[in-house]
What does this fold into?
Amino acid sequence: MSFQRVSRTAAVAATAVLALSACGGGSGSADLDPDADISEQKLVVGIWADYYPEDLAETFEAETGVPVQIVHHATNEEIMAKLTAGGDSGIDVAFVSGQYAQALNEGGMLQELDHSLIPNIENLYPEAMEMAYDDGNTFSLPYAWGTTGLCYRSDLLPAEPTSWTDLLEPAAGVAGKTTMLSTERWMALPALKALGYSVNSENPDELAAVKEQLTTTKPTLLSFDDTTFYSKLVTGEAVLTEAWDGWCNYGIAEDPNIKFTVPEEGSDLWVDTMTVLKSSQNKEAAMAFLNYVLEPEIHSWAAENILYKVPNQAAMEALDPELLVTYPNLAMTPAELAKQEVIVDLGDYSTEYTRLATEISAK
Amino acid sequence: MPALRSAASGAAWRRRLAGLPILGPGVLFLFVLAVLPVALVTVYAFFERGRFGGVEYNFTLDNFVRLADPLYLGVVLKSILIAGAATGIALLIGYPAALFISRLPKRWRTLALIAVLLPFWTNFLIRTYAWILLLNNAGWINQGLQALGITTEPVAMLYTEPAVVVGLVYMYLPLMILPLYASLSSQDAQLTEAATNLGSSPFRVFRTVTLPLSAPGALTGCIFVFVPAMGNFIIPELIGGGKTVLIGNLIRDQFLKARDWPFGAALALVMTAFLVLLLVLQQRASRAVSEGKTPRKADA
It folds into this structure.
C-alpha cells in the first residue's frame, strides 16, 4: 500500500516528464491582436475548485461565444507543477496566489496584460493596483485578497486578543486550546510579526529567533491546522486560532461568538490572482475572460459565497450590507488591507522556511 | 545435437510465449505503475530542485547528503517507532481475533470476516473523522468520562502521538487479521488432535503447534500493517494535529508544499529500499519457518 502511495507521488512526476518529452517545441509568444475574432478561440482555465460561480463557463460562452473548459487544482503547488512541468500545459488562464504569479513571471511564463482589452480594470480599488509582487498589475489581476489574523471565541476568552503574543504565549486557561496554520510561511508569520520582522524575512538570525519562539509555543498548541480550525472553534475545542480571514467567516457563519482581528503588530496581505500564460494561443479570449470576471455581478460572487474580500470596488459596494454586519472582516477597507505586508516569493530561500516548519512539527 | 537443442529451446520459447497474452496485462500494469515510477523517483533524486517545482537537470548528490541530517533521521526513526508500535498492537489484537474467527462454525466465520472487512466500505477520511469526533476534548469519550464522574476535566487524547498509533492500528487491523486467519484456518486440525491425544495441555498445543504454524501468517500481517503505516500521512495530520511528522508527511510536503521534488524523491527512494529489504527479510523468515529450518524446541 505504501508502494502504491510512493508510486502515486511518482506518477505526478511521471506525468510531468511525459509532458516534458511530449512538447519540446517552443511556444510562440504571438503578440496580442486587438481585432482577433475571439469567438474562434477557446479557453482552458485553471482555478481552485468551488472558487468561482458554478455557471461561469456557460455564462461567459453565452456572452462571448468562447467555450471554456475549467480544470481544478487544490493548491498553488499543484497548478505550478502543471504549468512548469515543461512544454505547453494547455492552460490559458491560471488562478494562482500573488507570490506564485511573481515566480511564474520571473520564469518568463506570463503574458503581459493589455489593459485596453480589460476595461473593467477600472472597477478595481486603486490599492489593488500597487501590489509588491506586481506593481501596476502588468501580468496579474487580483481576484480575491485578505489577511491572516486571530480567529477566536469571544465568549470563551478572558479578554479580546490584540497581539500575536496572545497566541504565541497563551494565558493559562487558553493554553492547549489554540491552533496555528501549518503551511510554512504562515506558521512563521505570527512569530515574525511579534518579533518585529518582515513576513518575507531572509535573515537567518531572525528565522532562528522564530524557531526559538515556536519551540516554546508548540507545547501550548492543540494542533497545527490549515483546514478545520474553524470547526474546532465551533465545538469549543479551540478558543484562539491563527486564521485566514475568509476561513474565519466559515466559523462565524456557525457561531456569531466567533470573531476575527488583525493583531496590532500587523500581518500579511495575500492575493489570489488571475494570470494569462504566454504559451496560450487564445490570449485575446483570455483577456476577455479576465475582463468578464471583473464584472461586478460576477466578481461579487466570491464575496457572497466564499466570504472572501474581492478587490473590486463596484462589486464590494453592491454587496448586501447585512453581509458586512455578519462578517465584519469583509468590511475591512482596502486602505487597512494595504497596510499589511504583501507576501512575496523567496525563491531558493523558501526552503529555509520549509526546514523551519519541519523542525517545528517534528519536535 | 545442435539442431535438436535448438528445436527443444524453440519449443521452450513457444511455451514461454504462450503465457504472454495472460501475463501481458499484469506485466504492463507492473511496469507502468511500479517500475516506471520507481525509476523516475530514482532519476529525480540525483538532480537539483527547480524553483517552481520539478527538477533542474544538474547532477547532484546533495539530496542524499541531506538525508543524514539529524532532523530527517529523527523523522525516519520516529516513523519506524510509531509504525512498529502500531504493528505490535495490531498483532496483539489481531491474533486472538483471527484465532477466534478460525474456530467459529463455518456460517459465523463468513459473517465475522465480512465484519472485519466492513470498515473498508466507508471512505477512510470519513472513518478518520469519526475518530476525531470520538477522541476530541468535547468528544463522546470525554463526555462519557465526565458524565460518569470519572474525570472532571477533558483528557487530551486527540492530537497526540498515542492517538496517531491508535488511528494506524484501527486503519490497518484488518490487514493483520486476514493473513492470520488464512494461516490459522488452513492448519491441519489433525495436528492439534494428535498433540491433544498425546497428552498436551491446550496451552502447550497452542504454544508448540498452532503458534509456530501461524508464524508466517503473522509475519505477513506485520508487513501488511507496518508498510502502509510507515507511509501514512493523513493520520498524523488529522489525528496527530500536525504535531507529529512521519516520513509520509515529509515526502508529501516536499512535493506538494516545498516544491522540492528531488529531495522528496530521495526520501521516497530510501523508504522504498527499506521496505523492499523488509519484504525480503519477511520472505526469508517465512520460508525458514515453513520449512522447519529454525531450531524449535519441539522436544522441550
Confidence is low (pLDDT under 50) at residues 294-300 of chain B. Chain B touches chain A through 55 residues (CB under 8 Å). The longest strand of chain B covers residues 48-49. Residues 288 and 294 of chain B are 6 Å apart (CA to CA).
